[in-house]
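hey can u check if this looks right to u? its 673 residues, i copy pasted from the old doc so theres a chance i mangled smth
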Amino acid sequence: MTAELVRGQNHPLSQSRLEIRISAGTPIVAVAALGDENGRIHGVEWVAHPGAPTQPGLEVSRQAAADHRLAVDLDAVPEAVHRVSVLLALPAGGTGPLRFGAVAAPFVAVTGLDGDEVASYTLTGLEAESAVVALELYRRQGAWKVRAVGQGYAGGLAELLTDQGLPQAHELAGSINEAVAQGVARSVQAPPPRTADGDRSRQAAAPALGPDQGGAAPQPGPVPPTSPYGGGQTPGGPGQPAPQQPSYPGGATDPHAVPQPSAPTAGGPIDYSHPRRQTTAPPPPAPTAPPAAPGQPAQPVAGDATGWSMEERLYNQVWGMFEDLARTTAAYRSAVDFAESRMDKELEQVLADPRSRIGGQGDAAREEARARHARLVAQAREALDRDLAQLAAEADVVEPALPPAYARWDNPVWHAYRVPMEIPMALRLGDLHLPEADGIRIPMLVRLPLERGLWIDSGPAGASDGSFTDSHAMSRLAMETAVAHAARLLAVYPAGEFTVHVIDPAGSGAQPLAPLVRAGVLAAPPALGAAGVAEVLGRLTQRVDLVQMALRGGAADSLPPGFDTSQQLLIVNDFPHGFDDRAVNQLRYLADEGPDVGVHLMMVADREESSAYGPLLDPLWRSLLRLTPVADDHLADPWVGHAWTYEPSLPPPGSQVLQQVLAQVAAARTKFM
């Protein structure tokens, strides 16, 4: 029976191997600290945090998330340790909430490896605190107990760790925040939240906080009219969460979310609903699956998710597939971990008993433990294979039905391509998959207009198949990936509503850029040399300043005659070659302020080559969604932090589809002009 603790209450622990599950309504950072008999932390090596997720007897999550699972092995902690404290904090420097009083009360549960809850604690009564000691496991007379603490600190992790007696508290808090920020930069945007009854595809989802960057998760709903300057957002609209918006991967309200009734105030009820937002649930899915045979799963149908249009239904269905694959894989891995820990425990019991350590009885016990482990793993794999078969069948149906913005370059839909009249909801940047389901590819979709810049990492890296690519080939592949993404962006926007600028100081990207140059879809030839860098950056910086002044002054209709109101994309190759200090500051300014006024950044760069700038450029890299030109498992989901393998979306070798699409874009732009 679970003990529901209140602040200060304790409860005995009968197991040494435990799991601590944390649930919150917003992404939080989970840290575990080892303390002596007085609760003092002796050094940074006594703290498990996202930057150093494993310590003796401890393992914590590598990123901020709304749900965490911490592993604790009390038998493995050093003898000098008498306390294990679980610390929670809101991510610093983000756009999410700044105090626990503004979010739902976090819930912490201590469970055994079998999943049965031992004790739970809801952290109520928090207000201005941004960090809190949730609970502690402590040793008393050789036995371990759990105590609900709930001690909060308004000064954040630094104040909390200082109070715990850690001499390097401020330095460690800074490194934790840096590790969390890096995790945000590589995380995938959260998909639409699941409904209360677990049916993701046939009910309207309720608004929920997204776990990626402290922002709101995308919500099914009608797409409101977009502004060429505001990125389709109302004032106070969201940054892309998933981070991750991968998601892909911050921090305000979703313009597509259904508004909730506001609480009445002393001056009477206030209606916070937006005049253009729909307050009714979207219509039910149009497609219906044929009746399934008795005992057989229902046949998948493309577009069977909720939504106002087929495009939105497919978008929500893709995210549902992503969520299903993440969760079923997490369940399989958890079952395998449980089977292994159970076998280890049974083998330890055999070895601990001298009577059964040797001889036939011991051999039989060991064989029985291994057989039980094999049965548990086989059962878990059977369940996983069943789920994967259903997902594979769904992917086979959904992939051919995707519109061009969501489709791979080898999809036949591109042969019937026509320049669209409206901006789509999202754009495909590649595919995601997990090692347990290598044959299932989930489209990686990001919402449009882009809310984060893109960074195509041209640094040396090993591919997922173990091969390595030299730096010259990697730079070429990175530029080809950038061109493919730029071509797709040009293809999915209406004629004249998307403009591409290129900075290529050394001219090293001339060959990959040839399709864009030959088609005549660039605003101007690629800028060369330091003078070209200064001219393009100066022009775009002035554009951002001008539009910001117009919007803040309420004079968006008073821009100069002939002002180009289209979305702007700047592709930068070979950074920092050709950049001086002024140009670097302008680039950072565009990355920070540009997306809100329709100016987006795509960097093709190796971070190590700009290491001479030191920490000055760290905010720049964190603000961009990192992608790779080769398959690489660097993206994380917002629930359990799976390492998803990302593969870029590139035209098939020898295919002319990209050139044909760009030719149509150029022809449509000519008619538009």
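Residues 191-278 have pLDDT under 50 and may be disordered.
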